[in-house]
Design goal:
Elements lengths: L5 E4 L1 E4 L2 E8 L33 E4 L8 H10 L6 E4 L4 H10 L3 E3 L11 E5 L2 E4 L1
Helix pairs in contact: 1-2
Length: about 130
């Protein structure tokens, strides 16, 4: 973790403010079949986050992939109280964007996610991403 605060700008997909520890994947995530909506564990075999929980984390990944039902899985994560605190993407696509909007999860995209590593303390405040 770095001790110097860094600020990045992104495009707001779902406005909001959230803070937490980053969980970073360098791979796209499929929520349908890739994340258990009851436990929030990544269950996609071979995924770089396999076995890790996304609950309460600032989830950082390049983009979504897979079925449009993934939006509903994100909503179910929120209904079950195990959703990520916020989502940061390099480039959003409709599946994750719609999921974040209907679940009320703050989300930004067009962020250089190579500047964030797992364990960084990250705050999203509107279009600003603050990394401590």
């Amino acid at each position: 973790m770095s001790t110097v605060e860094r600020r990045l700008k992104g495009r707001v997909i779902k406005a909001g403010r959230a803070s937490g520890l980053a969980l970073v994947s360098r791979e796209p995530i499929s929520f349908l079949g890739g994340v258990d909506p009851e436990t929030a564990c990544v269950i996609e075999v071979g995924h770089d986050l396999e076995g890790q929980s996304i609950a309460g984390r600032i989830l950082v990944f390049p983009s979504g992939k897979g079925s449009t039902v993934g939006s509903y899985i994100i909503y179910r994560l929120a209904r079950n109280g195990v959703a990520p605190a916020a989502i940061i993407n390099s480039e959003s696509e409709p599946i994750v964007a719609v999921g974040a909007i209907i679940a009320g999860i703050p989300m930004v995209d067009q962020v250089d996610i190579s500047q964030i590593v797992t364990g960084d303390r990250v705050t999203i405040d509107g279009e600003t991403v603050i990394i401590d």
